[in-house]
Amino acid sequence: MNKETMLCTGGVGMIGSALVNRLCEQGKKVLVIDDLSRGKQEFLHPQAELLIRDLQENTWQDFTDNFQLHYGRFSACLHLACKIGGVNYMLSNELASHKNAAIDWNVLSYCAERKIPLLYCSTACTYSVHVQTAEADHPPLKENEALQNTAPESIYGYCKLVGELTVARHAKESGLSWKVVRMFNVFGPREVPNPQTGHVIPALIYKCLKEPGDLEVWGTGQQFRSFLYVDDAADGILAVMDKGLPGRPYNLGWPERVTIKELAEMVVKATETNKKLWYNLDRPMGVFGRTADISRVKAEVGWEPKTDLYSGIVKTVEWCKEWMQQNI
Fold it and tell me: Which residues pair with 259 in a beta bridge?
């Protein structure tokens, strides 16, 4: 009997590789398409097959069609590929975010033409800055707020929101079966620690382990977020793919918030570096507050995260130490 066959774009990144691990452990045949711009080939599960391509261009579609002829039609496409980075990267390289529109168009059109069910991985960056300001202590963000008073903080957020709308239009015009998750600040092993391009947790880990002196924290430290461990994110994606309602976005996040000051103190403790914090107000800090309302995904899908923030940080520190010893 042939294995169930899955297509995963961006499958060697932090989230993608965790997701591919889950799929391979379930006995599925997985084709990953990735340009290796953020992930490393070594992160890929040995049973998965990798096609190294830039999804902005259509040089991958013939190979993907032939893959289906050999292994069977894709049961679904899990679309994670995008140009992404931490707040410094996103605000300093906003024009690069336009590439996501080309990536999305090619992948979504491919799936629509071939009637391949698709799960689109979106982001909390789609939500408006108006509901994430310091002027009001806003409650956790609900899914329907993304299209109310629309004003994401970056071109990246706009492009991902357009991606959601494009998927919806493909569904209406071609019958594409689709689902959407919006992920909130995912972290964990296999995100290469880089203080300039990485997200906040691997950036803080790098600074603790490699930079002398006190620990630089961007902004006041009072801004707050909720963080989701990568294995929980992978489980959430698969749960929505299996049980989520078509055309309905689901937040995936940890429901409790933490200030960046508290986060930095956790990283100092986990790295056992005893650094003091100093706050650089000249560096980007992003929106003031962002947390996820996950009541919809809990009620309709039965998913909620299991890994608390500090436990996830400890696991991430262990991975970063090993990777940095071998590569830096």
Answer: 224
- Residue 274 main-chain phi, psi, to 5 deg: 55, 35
Contacts of 262 (CB under 8 A, 6+ apart): none
pLDDT in tens, 132-160: 776 656 788 888 888 777 888 788 888 99
CATH 3.60.40.10 fits 5-189+227-253+292-306, yes or no: no
Nearest to 312 by CA among 233, 241, 236, 214: 233
Question: Which pLDDT value is given to residue 1?
Answer: 42
Residue with tokens 């169930």: 4
Spans of all domains in the chain: 5-189+227-253+292-306
Tell me the pairing of strands 224-225 and 258-259.
antiparallel
Q: How far apart are CA 205 and CA 11, in angstroms?
A: 24
Give every CB contact of residue 206 below 8 A, 6+ residues apart in sequence: 193, 194, 195, 198, 320, 324
Place of tokens 């024009």: 95
Record the tokens describing residue 303, joined without a space.
């998913």
Alpha-carbon torsion angle 303, 290, 182, 283, nearest 10: -130
**Cα–Cα distance for residue pair 275/300, rounded to 1 Å:** 43
According to DSSP, the β-strands at 186-187 and 228-229 are parallel
CA-CA distance, 286 to 277, in Å (whole number)? Answer: 19
Query: What are 210-260's pLDDT values in tens digits?
Result: 999 999 998 899 999 999 999 999 999 999 999 999 989 999 999 989 999
Distance CA 24, CA 28 (A): 5
Q: Cβ of 245: how many Cβ atoms within 10 Å? A: 12
d(CA 243, CA 296): 12
By the 8 A CB rule, do 158 and 104 touch? no
Phi-psi map region of 87: left, alpha, beta (phi>0 left; psi -120 to 50 alpha): alpha
Beta 178-183 vs 249-252: how paired, if at all? parallel
Separation CA 124–CA 87 (nearest Å): 13
Distance CA 82, CA 104 (A): 8
